[in-house]
Amino acid sequence: MPVKEYTRKSSTVRALEWTGDNYPDLIRFMAGKDAEVPELHGCEIVEMHIPARVVNANIGDFVVEDAFAGTFCSCDPEVFEALHTETTQ
Question: What number of CA atoms fall less than 13 Å from residue 60's CA on the CB side?
């Protein structure tokens, strides 16, 4: 079978940029999902407890909700901005 090229299908994701100062926003964003974020006190890295693993996000990273898997991941801002554009309402 020959090698083929594929283009990523566009999709809309929900994401929140971790600034180090928006812990309440992160808690609201992840509320009702199977995830836990321990209390923070001025941390640059947030540790998110997702089923079967722990995900870390540094300041500036985007916390992205995977709507299909019902979980979260972190994404470097350069990668996130290269793959996504903000949806205007």
Answer: 5
